[in-house]
Amino acid sequence: MAGRAAALLAMRPDVAQAAFPAALRTRLDAVVEIDHGLVVTDFAEPRARWALAGAEVLLTGWGCPPLDAEALDAAPNLRAVIHAAGSVKHHLSPDFWTRGILASSAADANAYPVAQFTLSVILLAGKRMFTMARHYAEGTYKPPSTSQRFGNVGRTVGVVGASRIGRLVLPMLAREGFEVLLADPTLSAAEAAALMPAPWAVELVELDELLRRSDVVTLHAPSLPETHHLLDDRRLGLMRDGSVLVNTARGALIDTEALVRCCAAGRIDAFLDVTDPDEPLPPGHPLFLLPNVVVTPHLAGAMGSEIALLGAYAVADVERYAAGLPLLGGVHQDDLARIA
């Protein structure tokens, strides 16, 4: 590539600051021409329009406006969109994929904080920490008896979806001594076995069997038409009494009304970092009022200091683009049907 390509930042200014600290800005300056003081949130704004016209590389992140046909027409030199975050579905329009422009995502970098968060929740849920803490605050706490389903020894965790996060969670669970089940209709038994390093093992089962056998069910599937309300009344009814449902994936995987009924009956506990149809949930929603349900505001992904991990991944792909190498986080139109 002759000279340095022109690059443009399109994201919220606070995201740009968190994703690209000084050391990463220096790396960018070495391979592209970029004005770090120009961070675009509206492609129609005159200064943004001017910069977009000359941009060869667009560095995007949370708060990036949609790259629709009008924005793409204003960017005749655009050759690569490198996303310093996870899903590209929110800003890359259907028209984008007809233009032959490269796309990359830092979803791999975002996956590890989610996997860490998921493992932490599972371990704490095994101790019934969330319910116990609420009872303690209300003055109704009683120490668990030895006959209760309590603790993490000898427990079975069912992982729904061998996504990039699901694949990170599998060995984490095995290292903690859990028996691990996996449900994913896209995998063969041999492919599933290859996901777990020796000496650990994962058992590939149908989703209904996973729900019946698991003490904890953790969701890591994408939100697709075929996964909408994957856990409905019938499937929630298959879960063991006293089991725990963890969702750090997408809210639409669960029928919320069915979950409210199931948790209100006291049959299962739930930890939800994502919800549907509302995110965030409105104040006073029944899920907030149930003592065996914890809802957090989409905390699992990269936050605070972790956002620089996304920036570093994106910068590495800018460097690879400048060197004419394949992008590490490359995303293709065919991927959209199976990614978040």
TrEMBL record:
Coiled coil: none annotated. InterPro entries: D-isomer_2-hydroxyacid_DH (IPR050223), D-isomer_DH_CS (IPR029753), D-isomer_DH_NAD-bd (IPR006140), NAD(P)-bd_dom_sf (IPR036291). GO terms for molecular function: glyoxylate reductase (NADPH) activity; hydroxypyruvate reductase [NAD(P)H] activity; NAD binding. Keywords: NAD, Oxidoreductase. It comes from the Bacteria. Transmembrane segments: none annotated. GO terms for cellular component: cytosol. Residues 120-300 form the D-isomer specific 2-hydroxyacid dehydrogenase NAD-binding domain. This is D-isomer specific 2-hydroxyacid dehydrogenase NAD-binding.
